[in-house]
Specification:
The protein has 382 residues and is an alpha/beta fold. The protein is 35% helix and 15% strand. The chain has 11 helices and 11 strands. Strands 4-5-7-6-8-11-9-10 form an 8-stranded mixed beta sheet, with helices on both faces. Helix 3 runs antiparallel to helix 11 and helix 7 crosses helix 11. The longest helix is centred in the middle third of the chain and has 21 residues. It is globular. It binds ligand BES and zinc ion. Keywords: Aminopeptidase, Hydrolase, Metal-binding, Protease, Signal, Zinc. Pfam families: Peptidase_M28.
């Protein structure tokens, strides 16, 4: 069904003039501001353990784990044998709760209004590159404004470069430990897409919401002058919608360098409360680490003001799956059960103002979870 829409849209685009000449040359870039070769062959994997297959990009709908550039991810060659982490019950309430009280919807509102004002954040578009540069500059401003001078010395941010225009963004708060090299990652994806990539894609919920959710958590941690024992990283991945491309590249790089990631938590879609449903947090239980997911559920109970419900995507639906594939424990929390999640995603209607079901208060609950995840697993120094 989805595939047929994509195919018919694709044929529409190819028959639409600018000029017949241009059409006959089968240009690789079919629209200004997009660097997209629709004839490229991509290797995709439909389900875990299933054989992969080659497919032309123009025939690709969504729901594909595109493994073309990361075929070795998790095959054990580059990932060292790791000692499996255990996750004792959360016990840092004294540190976490005061930070939760400082979380606000104001920053997320301003940030999301700006982030959704880009026509699309598609990873191969000029505006997708511009939105990424804006994100980086916003992180830089928040850091300069919020973190004390001594805390700033512990913070670095960088672009993780990709071959397509939009880079992933990585912020690191250096841990104090000299003996524990474990790293805790909080992630979201910064790119958006329309089912047909050339059309507008505000991506307010998918995944503008997760992007600003974790940014607010980062701001609150800095405001609290939080100093972790283990290094904490915040990641904003590029090209999730292209088949988890950005997160696969980052996870592959970390595995190749034997980086000791002890836990990764993904935030993708945190804003929607479907009319007539109970407000809750959806805990994804497929393509995740069961122990870390169990720990994550304890965090929801302890720190969020809404209950959780276990749910499934049924496929490798977001960046947590890249980390899991690389052999690292990951967990994934969404706005509701999968069934009650926002159905406007991948369309021009994935907007803040599409309905009252889009809720910044709901989003704030997830900022609490990200703060708790960082502090409980990262530890703290006084
Ligand atoms: N945010 C979605 C996944 C999602 C959908 C999570 C509904 C929770 C509720 C994600 O950005 C996405 O669109 N993923 C693709 C698959 C990916 C491998 C390209 C999808 O679901 O089609
Ligand atoms: Zn999506």
């Amino acid at each position: 069904m989805k595939l047929s829409i994509v195919l018919s849209l694709a044929s529409l685009a190819f028959t639409a003039p600018p000029s017949l000449d241009k059409f006959e040359q089968q240009p690789l870039t079919v629209q200004d501001g997009f660097d997209l070769d629709l004839n490229a062959q991509r290797l995709i994997q439909l389900a875990e353990g299933q054989a992969s297959e080659w497919i032309e990009l123009k025939a690709l709908g969504l729901k594909f784990f595109d493994i073309t550039d990361n075929q070795d991810l998790g095959n054990g060659i580059q990932s060292p044998a790791r000692v499996k982490s255990s996750f004792p019950p959360p016990n840092a309430t004294e540190k976490v709760i005061p930070i939760l009280k400082t979380l606000s919807t104001q920053g997320p509102k301003e940030n999301l209004e700006k982030f959704t004002s880009f026509r699309t954040r598609y990873y191969r578009s000029d505006t997708g590159r511009a939105s990424q540069k804006w994100l980086l500059s916003r992180i830089s401003e928040i850091t300069a404004k919020t973190a004390s001078a001594s805390l700033q010395k512990l913070i670095t941010f960088r672009e993780f470069k990709h071959s397509w225009g939009q880079n992933s963004v990585i912020v690191r708060i250096q841990g104090s430990s000299t003996t524990d090299d474990g790293i805790v990652i909080v992630g979201a994806h910064q790119d958006s897409t329309n089912l047909w990539p050339f059309l507008p894609a505000p991506g307010a919920d998918d995944d503008g919401s997760g992007s600003v959710t974790i940014l607010e958590s980062y701001r609150a941690l800095l405001a609290a002058d939080y100093r972790p024992v283990r290094t904490i990283e915040f990641h904003w991945y590029s090209a999730e919608e292209g088949g988890l491309l950005g997160s696969q590249a980052v996870a592959q790089d970390y595995a190749a360098n034997s980086v000791n990631v002890i836990a990764m938590s993904q935030f993708d879609m945190t804003a929607w409360v479907k009319r007539g449903t109970r407000e809750e947090a959806g805990i994804i239980i497929d393509y995740v680490d069961p122990d870390l997911t169990n720990f994550n559920m304890q965090l929801v109970d302890l720190y969020m003001d809404i209950p959780f419900v276990q749910t499934q995507c049924g496929y490798a639906c977001s960046d947590h799956a890249s980390w899991r594939k690389a052999g690292y424990p990951s967990t994934f929390t969404i706005e509701s059960s999968f069934e009650n999640s926002n159905k406007n995603i991948h369309s021009v209607n994935d907007r803040i103002d599409v309905s009252e079901e889009f809720s910044f208060e709901h989003m704030l609950e997830f900022s609490k979870l990200a703060v708790a995840f960082a502090v409980e697993l990262g530890g703290y120094t006084d």
